[in-house]
């Protein structure tokens, strides 16, 4: 009746109604399926099959669906590259390579045997047929990431291996296509090798340079997001020009921007939000639209081919996951998670099937075209996509949830009793975003509502000062909320800035105070006075003085200077956690400089809380100064101003601000003054008294780096 009243024919062509139906599906399917513990990824694929051209025919798989679906596929691969922990990836690269060889070779061998010996395909067709099962698509990655286990070893190994195995399978596709067209020769291999090397160099070397310049010079949030989209599509296009699939380009784009989009930033939140809300669901719906259930009841041969494909793909991925688990002695859940993540076949499989299906290698006696991959393989691949995505969704959801729950239990049992409360002292509008970004970077992952921002208004100031304070604090709240973090604004009326901040520190039980310097001014006389006669009188807080001349995301490397005996101070490990979080959340390389004893402790810590770090021993403060004040472009400086250390290592602590004003005015730098309170928790007491004992250090590490 509705269709006849509005004169609507099927499939629906009205763009408004089409988009409304798709959005309703994206909204309702997860809400319904979450109640019965069914992965919504599977629900979106089935919904696409129901409303698609092979279902009720409500919607056609036209260009609009293909474009948004392609963007969703590129988004999945981009997020996988963007969120990968580069320090862990480098640390576990041989594990990823080993897994990729397992997950490529085992399904390939099974597929080759099935195609050549059981189905009777030609050798060339059998090789392409076998390559369909070697690749996999990380359709469950957004769900894994949302559970907070993206840095788990099994996830890291699987993501790294995905890049390698997809490249290998798509290279097989390129070679088989070339051989079927008689183009394989020296010129073919030379062209393919040169184009791939050029593609890799452009994306991994040139893209970061362009992105760093853009993020330095363009602060508009919308423009920054659109720039990211441009980078994704540009990398995908360059990949196609190089002769490989666009999904590899998107993954490399994620690797290229990995260090420039901090995981705690508002930009990262926007990238994930739009992808998970719009583009990725559209991709899943578009995959569902390819499913034609009638094809499986029209021919037994299609079902026979599909059965061989399922055994080769899912069975091969299972054995590859078990081999990986046994090789690296992973837990059963980690082995199952590897299988769950790698068992889904969609993107590369679909691309290879369509390419092989469209290649005609001859004609039969009836004049019908003989295709490199026939109709039975095409229909079988659709069933493979549906079943493999189903298996992937259920297995991954169950095992990932168990791993996440286990991690949560470990964190609860290992956390210290100290509650983290961070205070940002905001006085200048132009420093708000930079201060908030630093606060988001140094906080622990569990702190989402205990960040405060204060603006102190002197009693004699007028109404305009009150309005200015409201404007500054409102900007800070918006900047934090863009990263899904609640910031609590505080307007304080007091005689002077230092006393106002000190009162807030006491009232809110602040553990970390961050004060900012204006980029062009550095340490002014009034700030130095407030520093030594106000802020540093709070012995129970960790104080950070921040000088920002460029966005924190554009810093390539930090030089971290640690004074002698700093580890003997009460707040050393608390302050070190802040430094560690900067390295972990920004992806910047951390170069630590200090005495042998201190470096030994940090080397032990890095084994437990992985960041990309180097450790160098220095003998004198003069040597440290040369390192600190000979910084290159895009290099930041962090100096720990420990009490005990500074008395023995830096005789004139008050000279440091003057040196920074004169020698480091063009660089970002952070001075950290650890708390010096005597009442510290038991774990830190053990570390202070016996820091050379690895067992005690291990207890500290498990406690503070959760």
Describe the structure using short key phrases.
single chain; 706 residues; alpha/beta; 9% strand
Detailed description of the structure:
The chain has 29 helices and twelve strands. With 706 residues, the chain is of the alpha/beta class. Helix 6 packs across helix 7 (123-131). The longest helix has 40 residues, at 375-414. It is elongated and about 95 Å long. The termini are far apart.
**Extended strand count:** 12
- Globular, elongated, flat, extended or rod-shaped: what is the shape? elongated
Structure class: alpha/beta
Unreliable stretches: 412-417, 644-653, 679-706
For the sheet with most strands, the description reads: 10 strands, mixed
Mean pLDDT across the residues is: 81
Strand arrangement across the biggest beta sheet: 5-4-3-6-7-12-11-8-9-10
Number of helices: 29
What portion of residues is helical? 55-70%
How would you concisely characterize the structure shown here?
The chain contains 29 helices and 12 strands.
């Amino acid at each position: 009746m509705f269709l006849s009243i509005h004169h609507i024919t099927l499939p629906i062509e009205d763009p408004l109604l089409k988009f409304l139906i798709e959005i309703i599906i994206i909204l309702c399917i997860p809400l319904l399926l979450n109640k019965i513990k069914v992965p919504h990824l599977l629900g979106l694929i089935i919904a696409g099959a129901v409303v698609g051209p092979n279902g009720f025919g409500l919607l056609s798989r036209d260009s609009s669906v293909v474009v948004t679906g392609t963007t969703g596929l590129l988004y999945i691969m981009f997020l996988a590259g963007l969120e990968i922990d580069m320090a862990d990836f480098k640390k576990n690269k041989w594990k990823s390579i080993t897994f990729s060889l397992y997950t490529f070779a085992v399904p390939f061998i099974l597929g080759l045997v099935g195609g050549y010996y059981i189905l009777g395909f030609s050798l060339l067709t059998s090789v392409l047929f076998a390559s369909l099962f070697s690749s996999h698509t990380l359709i469950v990655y957004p769900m894994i990431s949302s559970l907070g286990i993206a840095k788990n070893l099994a996830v890291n190994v699987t993501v790294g291996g995905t890049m390698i195995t997809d490249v290998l399978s798509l290279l097989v596709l390129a070679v088989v296509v070339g051989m079927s067209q008689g183009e394989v020769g020296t010129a073919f291999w030379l062209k393919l090798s040169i184009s791939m090397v050029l593609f890799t160099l452009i994306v991994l070397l040139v893209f970061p340079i362009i992105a760093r310049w853009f993020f330095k010079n363009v602060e508009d949030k919308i423009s920054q997001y659109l720039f990211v989209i441009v980078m994704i599509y540009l990398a995908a296009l360059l990949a196609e020009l190089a002769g490989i699939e666009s999904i590899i380009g998107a993954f490399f784009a994620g690797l290229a921007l990995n260090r420039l989009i901090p995981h705690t930033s508002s930009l990262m939140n926007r990238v994930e939000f739009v992808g998970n809300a719009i583009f990725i669901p559209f991709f899943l719906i578009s995959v569902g639209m390819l499913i034609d259930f009638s094809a499986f009841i029209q021919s037994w041969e299609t079902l026979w081919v599909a059965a061989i494909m399922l055994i080769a793909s899912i069975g091969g991925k299972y054995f590859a996951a078990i081999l990986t688990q046994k090789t690296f002695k992973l837990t059963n859940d980690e082995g199952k998670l590897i299988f769950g993540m790698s068992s889904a076949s969609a993107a590369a499989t679909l691309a290879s099937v369509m390419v092989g299906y469209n290649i005609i290698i001859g004609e039969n006696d009836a004049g019908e075209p003989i295709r490199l991959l026939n109709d039975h393989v095409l229909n079988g691949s659709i069933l493979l996509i549906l079943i493999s995505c189903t298996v992937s969704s259920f297995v991954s959801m169950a095992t990932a949830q168990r791993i996440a729950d286990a991690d949560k239990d470990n964190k609860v049992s290992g956390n210290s009793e100290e509650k983290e409360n961070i205070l940002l002292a905001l006085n200048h509008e132009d420093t708000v975003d930079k201060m908030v970004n630093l606060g988001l970077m140094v906080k622990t992952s569990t702190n989402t509502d205990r960040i405060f921002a204060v603006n102190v208004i002197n009693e004699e100031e007028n109404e305009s000062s009150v309005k200015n304070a409201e404007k500054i604090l409102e900007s800070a709240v918006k900047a934090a909320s863009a990263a899904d973090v609640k910031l609590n604004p505080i307007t304080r009326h007091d005689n002077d800035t230092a006393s106002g901040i000190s009162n807030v520190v006491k009232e809110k039980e602040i553990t970390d105070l961050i004060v900012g310097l204006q980029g062009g001014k550095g340490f002014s006389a009034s700030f130095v006075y407030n520093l030594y006669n106000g802020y540093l009188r709070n012995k129970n807080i960790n104080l950070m003085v921040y000088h920002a001349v460029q966005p924190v995301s554009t810093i390539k490397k930090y030089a971290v200077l640690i004074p002698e005996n700093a580890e003997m101070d009460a707040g050393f490990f608390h302050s070190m956690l802040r430094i560690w979080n900067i390295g972990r959340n920004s992806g910047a390389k951390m170069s630590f400089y200090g005495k042998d004893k201190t470096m030994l402790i940090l080397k032990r810590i890095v084994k437990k809380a992985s960041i990309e770090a180097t450790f160098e021993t220095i003998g004198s403060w003069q040597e440290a100064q040369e390192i600190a004040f000979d910084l290159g472009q895009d290099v930041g400086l962090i100096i720990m101003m420990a009490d005990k250390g500074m008395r023995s290592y830096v005789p004139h602590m008050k000279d440091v601000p003057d040196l920074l004003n004169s020698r480091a005015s063009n660089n970002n730098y952070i001075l950290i003054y650890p708390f010096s309170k005597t009442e510290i928790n038991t774990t830190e007491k053990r570390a202070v008294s016996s820091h050379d004992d690895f067992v005690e250090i291990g207890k500290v590490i498990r406690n503070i780096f959760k």
